[in-house]
Fold each of these.
Amino acid sequence: NAGVMQNPRHLVRRRGQEARLRCSPMKGHSHVYWYRQLPEEGLKFMVYLQKENIIDESGMPKERFSAEFPKEGPSILRIQQVVRGDSAAYFCASSPRGELEQYFGPGTRLTVT
Amino acid sequence: GNSVTQMEGPVTLSEEAFLTINCTYTATGYPSLFWYVQYPGEGLQLLLKATKADDKGSNKGFEATYRKETTSFHLEKGSVQVSDSAVYFCALSDPRGSYIPTFGRGTSLIVHP
């Protein structure tokens, strides 16, 4: 059973460009969470999704950020018009049910130049 | 609301020393408690968990006991190795909080030969 897959592992974008981060959960997992980790800081929750539904997006910035988890295919975190402050590691995690432990992907390290 | 407080790092130890990383929590219900470990450049991995009071989670020589009376879940290991050098995150998942886990800020452990 493959683990949580994220791609790309590293992404470099210039200010103003769009960044698309992909996450494929573990097989059988229908709950996906996105987190952001800034240098020397802990994990900050961004959004919680189930297939075709956003359950909780209380941690998402109101502008430029969006997330989806379609019926088919990976979950996508999209950042429009990136700024230098968006540079961080973005982690995706999945679980089979909401109350169980989460399994993390290796992360996407976004650098905005 | 829910919160997790970990001791600040870095914790620096010599190989074979005894390790304790303190973690205390605040939660509205009866949460499950977790310790995750993050090695450099990687995502978080579940290290151990406990789902009810007095449960002891253990894995790879690490252990932690769910203490409801002191709202604590301290991580311990009797003899650390250089390969244990990583960042350790305490977390809780509260069924009354929509299951979105709350993470501590992380504690960096550095083990010298």
Amino acid sequence: QSVLTQPPSVSAAPGQKVTISCSGSSSNTGNNYVSWYRQLPGTAPKLLIYDNTKRPSGIPDRFSGSKSGTSATLAITGLQAGDEADFYCGAWDSSLSVYLFGTGTKVTAL
Amino acid sequence: EVQLVESGGGLVQPGGSLRLSCAASGFTFNNYAMTWVRQAPGKGLEWVSGISGSGYTTEYTDSVKGRFTISRDNSKNMLYLQMNSLRAEDTALYYCAKDGRTQPGYDFDYWGQGTLVTVSS
């Protein structure tokens, strides 16, 4: 089954901005909502963004999501050392009737 | 406060069976779909199966179809995953997650801490 493609790693200095891309197809990211999850080392994933752009209660506005065509992007502004984690996008695939996670991106604060 | 507590993991031989359970609290259980997600050691997230709030709709990833069965008991606020014909590649940390809607496959807003399944002889 297909997966959603993310860059393996991104990095920036503390205080700077990083963006993570998530590339899919018309059957998943192109026509269904995209969500983003953060997984700190040794912990369960946490929902950061849902319905492409919405933040759950308690998620700071440093985290923002966008979508254009079949690609989605997570932006993190004001990068902090505590943001170092693995980030995953996700979306339902209407053709396969499965939920797909992205390949995952490790974010590092230099 | 939403809580999801998984149990039932352990060491099992190839071809064996396990039943995972997830006890849910802090929300109206039958209003939301539920999902199992797994993560093999050092690997990424893999969606395994989802079930609607009513229990009538179930979905599975291809690699577990015919071997795993997801179910729920809304009277007990419990989610289950019956795993049969287990293979080495099923070895993973299995997370129970709450969906944000009644139907599965949108977003997972709460997660348990996971239960480890190891398939090995």
Amino acid sequence: EAQVTQNPRYLITVTGKKLTVTCSQNMNHEYMSWYRQDPGLGLRQIYYSMNVEVTDKGDVPEGYKVSRKEKRNFPLILESPSPNQTSLYFCASSPQGFGNTIYFGEGSWLTVV
Amino acid sequence: DQQVKQNSPSLSVQEGRISILNCDYTNSMFDYFLWYKKYPAEGPTFLISISSIKDKNEDGRFTVFLNKSAKHLSLHIVPSQPGDSAVYFCAASEGSNTGKLIFGQGTTLQVKP
């Protein structure tokens, strides 16, 4: 079954404690991306990757890091989380940009206290 | 500055009637547009897309209209069904094969039986 898998799905953490949200897809997609969803703001793109070792900033990259060492994985790293990073995070993948459909993961609820 | 705007946070229609969801954009470089549907506790799912070389694209009950001069697109659902109740996001990009995707704030559609 085609899947985009995120972990953890729910997390409460404290300010400044580094955390990583993993994302894995089993469809051999070249494109992967991270979004955050906040009330009244919709989905905002954090980072995206067009292929292995190629990453680019989206609209709201501050406070986040990513890496794309292999095609299937695209982890989102919060080096020093702050309360304004409390949000619902989605990972997505696509065969190639948006010419085809984008598959989203189920989301990761992150609370920073 | 919000480049893609969905000015109606919510919409309520009767089953069987038409639902019209609207989206405006400001960036004239956008030439590829998509609609996503999102149920609670799930990731968004792709619904329909349109390239700027077209002004209409139809897929079953769903039709997207694009008015480039007005920088406006709309999603028509006919006939609306209770299962269509969800949050709908429009999104735009510069080309169908780029990595950057800008979403609107979303419109919550409720279809009443």
